[in-house]
Specification:
Distance between the termini: 8 Å
Shape: globular
Number of helices: 7
Largest sheet: none
Order of helices and strands: HHHHHHH
Helix content: 55-70%
Number of strands: 0
Radius of gyration: 18 Å
């Protein structure tokens, strides 16, 4: 059974890689058609999305998890269990935020690859949650380790808010670039107040989801 789960993890990782690479190729084509000259900058922007970073992390976790299923028996190492719990949290939050706040946000025609978008925002989050529930090796996540889960989102928000006003947008001609509209104080109804509201709201969602992931870890694995 462990081999079967390992194969499923490799398949999920392959889907994630295909979606990321497919969207990057689509984006490169879009930038070329719109005469974007600073390709290193826009590629950096691409990998500055929380969605892309968390999906890259999901691919890594799936592959490490597949290797652990094949090479050892029993519970996962504690470091991997904490890493896995964190990435599951990020992916579930990615799915929630996208489907509640971003699904109906209009994007330039040709900028988004539809099937890739669904894999990154829907399929991989669901697969990661199901993997956490069903796959053998899961250990209990101590409540005191919930703070570890929020480190990366905090760093990402600080990075985004510092970089945003310093990064020009060649597509729109604006002097700033933010990965998500609700983080842009220049276009939000109440500026930084609106941005702060969303940041706090998403932070609460991350804590709540992380607590849910820790709670699930206290349930007996459905499959051994």
């Amino acid at each position: 059974m462990r081999i079967g789960f390992a194969i499923l993890r490799v398949a999920a990782a392959a889907a994630g890689v295909a979606a990321i690479v497919g969207q990057l190729i689509t984006s490169l084509d879009f930038w070329g058609k719109n005469n974007v000259t600073n390709i290193p900058l826009v590629v950096t922007n691409f990998f500055s999305f929380f969605t892309i970073q968390s999906n890259v992390a999901a691919v890594v976790v799936f592959l490490i998890g597949a290797a652990l299923l094949v090479t050892r028996t029993g519970d996962d190492p504690q470091w991997f269990n904490t890493l896995r719990a964190s990435v599951v949290t990020y992916m579930v939050v990615t799915g929630i935020v996208y489907n509640l706040l971003l699904r109906n946000v209009p994007l330039p025609q040709g900028a988004t690859l539809p099937w890739s978008n669904e894999i990154l925002h829907v399929a991989v989050p669901i697969l990661m949650l199901l993997d956490w529930i069903f796959t053998p090796g899961r250990m209990v996540v101590p409540w005191r380790k919930l703070w570890i889960i929020v480190i990366y989102p905090i760093v990402w928000v600080v990075y985004t808010m510092i970089r945003g006003p310093l990064t020009p947008n060649e597509i729109t001609g604006e002097s700033y670039w933010y990965p998500y509209p609700f983080l842009n104080p220049d276009t939000s109804p109440n500026g930084y107040l609106s941005v702060s509201f969303y940041v706090v709201l998403i932070a609460l969602v991350i804590v709540a989801v992380g607590a849910g992931i820790a709670w699930i870890s206290r349930r007996k694995p459905i499959l051994k």
